[in-house]
Amino acid sequence: MSEVIRILLADDHAMFRSGIKALLDAEPRLEVVGEAATGDEAVEAVRSLRPEVVVMDLSMPESNGLEATRRIAALELETKVLVLTVHAEEEYLVPVVEAGASGYLTKTSADRDLVEAIKVVARGEVYLPPKATKLLLQQYKMAEASDDPGLRDLSSREQEVLALTAEGFSSREIGKKLFISPKTVDTYRARIMEKLGLNHRSELVRFALRVGLLKEM
């Protein structure tokens, strides 16, 4: 990715924001363009700054991170939300995904995984650690794929692309698995989103989980 990824940090602890900013500023093509200490400030900053990625804490005063994520998703901008929180996946993962976030990362993993997570969601993909993906599968395991009319409108290849997208694979990785080019994967994904009336990659994940398309490995 050649363009600079513009980032907004939303966390009510100034020292933590300073540490994360120092980490990100040391990376080529990453730029922190703003900071917010509350959920309301984060929403307003997204409106004015239009960052590519918001790194969002959940526990903040005024509107919390979950509510702020919902409001940012409702703006229908290109901004992606990556939740970075002290809370374990078991506590908030499903509400965060349903609110429209594109990724979930615990603060204990920030030093190792934050930079990569930001790059992933900035590409329009979903960042979920393996443990988080498994938790989502467990939460939605009672869903029946055959009951959803939207799924029946998809070809078998489109369902494969949808499932692999929901599992967090990139276009290049999906292409290797299905022996097609990354550009063809993107074409399939765009067609899927058009058929299902979806606008964001995170909505594809929620759809795949809801209809039971993903299966335990």
What would you note in describing this structure?
The protein has 2 domains: 5-129, Rossmann fold (3-Layer(aba) Sandwich), CATH 3.40.50.2300; 140-210, Arc Repressor Mutant, subunit A (Orthogonal Bundle), CATH 1.10.10. The chain is built from 11 helices and 5 strands. Residues 141-146 have low confidence and may be disordered. By secondary structure, the chain is α/β, with parallel strands linked by helices. Helix 2 runs parallel beside helix 3 (65-74), helix 4 crosses helix 6 (130-139) and helix 8 (156-166) packs across helix 11 (201-210). It has a 5-stranded parallel beta sheet with strand order 2-1-3-4-5, with helices on both faces. It is globular. 53% of the residues lie in helices and 12% in strands. The protein has helices at residues 14-25, 39-49, 65-74, 89-99, 110-122, 130-139, 149-152, 156-166, 171-178, 182-196, 201-210; strands at residues 5-10, 30-36, 53-56, 80-85, 103-106. Strand 1, helix 1 and strand 2 form a beta-alpha-beta unit.
